[in-house]
């Protein structure tokens, strides 16, 4: 589904991703962990098409298409969804209205007829039950005055509505208390299937207790320095990141 | 400049789609302005003597006045002798039957989406179509007559209802009010006249559509709306002009009188030609709009969506004279490229327990300049007057300007005045967020701007709200940067 080959990216003169390779197949959940500043969020932004970063090398194919050639909206329409670490406020635009536009833009791209109001509301109702979100939140201006937990749940709801084949969760756990974390993780687990894949970016192991990954990759200084199964996350929780840094630094020198 | 910014730039630089001209034989006054010009206009319109006298008084007063320079707008001096003050299609339109309207004119309005054919019109909206200096047609006249509503051109009203005209014309905006109002009083050509009798709720929306066509002409329309005791009317105004390299002057006056318990809702979708990207051409829109809540418990509400004109100078105001009267001003003003707008309102509280509400949403893009200028005045006797003002500015790109000039004068201690102001920017973050959900940059800007302006757009009648939304998106095409 997704094949990243030796991806390099920079912001200005500063090189941040120094050769990332990763293959993600349908049904898989990959966790990407790493200390602050290792490039985790850069990776998600580059995959989503944020132009603050310049891709300086490597390839990314998504369902056999050259992902890096596509503008961000087409990447989304092809099935990539990014749950933002800091969801953006759009005053005066309700989540409902926003999603109706988004869903229909995606349908248009795929040559499908737009959903009328009745069909759309039916779909919304169904997804609301799935991720347990309240109607009142969806009528309010998108993310405006939302609590941290509400913002993240709203992201998961949007994900449910847009039915991506690849969802990237960028530090979705940051700023959440344990109850909110459970709700968000519960939503994600509801959406897991053999046809879609997840990349879960997190600093802490905590989220991975609820969203159990198939693979864990450790990003450090722009490179994957270690990969393993879910037990790697537990090891990191116990031992911290220092031993990994030391191992990696030793390897380079 | 990032790619998203480039896209924003492209979006806000689209073409004006009403820029065509109609070729039709015109009868016009020679260039220049003097007493003879005024006599010419008055004679052309077959006016009674009192009108000519009033015009001449206004003209003599105008000669002594100076063009105002306090607004935050800049333009080369206007040569008032290089303008033609009267232009009318030669074939005289007969107002008795729609079938007799010149097919060329009919086609022009069809092209603008205004059908003069009553059957084809949006149900429930009567239209007065004004082309250059004259009213071409007024639809649904008969139906309105049944309800006792008078809806006709001002020229016709001067002849058919001279008592009403005499009583109210200039009663809210006297000719001595300001430079442009005096000019308008001297040379006004046409406009709409509305009278809603006592206790009548006007059975349909009334609307006037203004079109400037001829070159080197100014348009000086004058609208007078009178809502008698307990009456209600919702009135809409739309306007467009061809794309021309020279600037054209539009100096209109609108007067509204609301008697006891009456309510008037006045909505404008202003889309005069804004000039090209470099600021060449476009309409100078110098307009005086004012209403008086003359009776107790009356209400006047102005809603404006201003997207056109190269310069806009306009402050729709309400004189709150009657006790418990209520004034509202809802505005979205968009400026793009080199457009300049200095617009706002005046709420003059005179009666007791009067209330006013101001919601102004400025949107600036390109290299434009957008100023809000508002006055809230509470006079000595206005016990317990209340005002709420919310004044927001949205910036698109970093080459435009937004300014706010609020004036508050309170002479009564019981007054309650609230003022809130915000300035924000359409962020790349917001656009990227939309993009990531599959919404393209153009659609994203449109979504964000419409969300921002929603409170004002909600005030417009349904069909026009949809139009206004589209217009906002189109006006900003190519602006994001």
TrEMBL record, chain A:
Keywords linked to the UniProt accession: ATP-binding, Nucleotide-binding
* A Pfam family it matches: ABC_tran
> In which domain of life is the source organism classified?
Bacteria
The residues covered by the ABC transporter domain are 2-246
InterPro entries membership: AAA+_ATPase (IPR003593), ABC_transporter-like_ATP-bd (IPR003439), FeS-cluster_ATPase_SufC (IPR010230), P-loop_NTPase (IPR027417)
Which PROSITE patterns does the entry mention? ABC_TRANSPORTER_2
Instruction: Return the PANTHER family for the record.
Output: ABC TRANSPORTER I FAMILY MEMBER 6, CHLOROPLASTIC
UniProt record similarity statement: Belongs to the ABC transporter superfamily. Ycf16 family.
Q: What is the protein name given in its UniProt record?
A: Fe-S cluster assembly ATPase SufC
Organism lineage string: Bacteria, Pseudomonadati, Bacteroidota, Chitinophagia, Chitinophagales
UniProtKB/TrEMBL annotation, chain B:
Entry-linked InterPro entries: Fe-S_cluster_assembly_SufBD, SUF_FeS_clus_asmbl_SufB, SUF_FeS_clus_asmbl_SufBD_core, SUF_FeS_clus_asmbl_SufBD_sf, SufBD_N
Q: Where does the record place the SUF system FeS cluster assembly SufBD N-terminal domain?
A: 134-202
Looking at the record, the residues that make up the SUF system FeS cluster assembly SufBD core domain are 210-451
List the coiled-coil residues. Answer: none
Pfam families reported in the protein's UniProt record:
SUFBD_core (PF01458), SufBD_N (PF19295)
Transmembrane residue ranges = none
Which family is it part of?
Belongs to the iron-sulfur cluster assembly SufBD family.
**NCBIfam families tied to this protein:** PRK11814.1, sufB
Q: What is this protein called?
A: Fe-S cluster assembly protein SufB
Native source organism of the sequence? Compostibacter hankyongensis
